[in-house]
Input
Amino acid sequence: MKRIPILVAAITALPVLADGITLYEGPNMRGRSVSLSRSTPNLGYLGFENKAASAYVTDGRWELCTEPYFKGQCRTYGPGQKPSLGGQSYRVSSARIADDGLYEPAPSDRWSNSGDAEVVVYDRSNFSNQLRTLREATPNFDPLGFNDAVASLVVRRGTWQFCTDAYFRGECVTYGPGRYPSLPGKDDKFSSARPVNGGWGGGGNGGWGGNGGNWGGNHGGGNHGGGGGWNNGNDYGSPRIRLFEHGNFGGRSVWIERTTSNFDRMGFNDRAESVIVEGGSWRLCSDANGRGECEEFGPGQYPTLPRGLASKISSAYVR
Output
């Protein structure tokens, strides 16, 4: 009878874990913690960047990386307690599911350099029939046997520009990190791809989407790449952007996860001076309803905004 209360106390002292992985601030699963159930490209958003010293994997295999957006040195951990993260202790900045069928897991308990850019292309929508994993500029898909065959893709690292003609010509569309189960207007049309910096659109016919999407000709012009146009939905994955009242991510801030045609309604019109894009590609405009001066922002941190948008943003559209 005396053992019963001791056993109950031991059980109630165990941490409550969500399915996935829990990261702990101290070794041996102690201290402050954060539980993840989905891939997280930047732990800084949770206030946990470079803080983890141990982990408990409760479901699946997880890849932890020393830089945001799954860059830097990455290591894969299987289920169980990890009393120490070894050389990754207090260096983890991003975490993702390594065996969800879309990501190729790194060898267990071994260091691997994740590289700067990587995209997986598929022959069918919804990530069916994998064609190849690209890690460098590929100017012509024809010799590789999948010209005009890409129907879905997963950007694992970096920002990629896909073009309808070989050698990065024709109409080009830029994709930041994330899952793209379909490619509206560009299904089976790409002939080349390359990593690009900063998530800006490329080449093509100029303007935003030409006649291919909801934006069409009225919003053409500018220096950014063409492509399938913009719509008002969250077509790909989990888009998310954070807008800050001051430069360098200072002051009041708001999160946006879907197209917002008028910032007046949320009390943040003409206020943003810096932004962080966690997921998706976002078109930010100086006027409501996607009008005025507009720029596209892919995943990353933007401590300052172009002069035409600083303290002038009134609407945001997600691709």
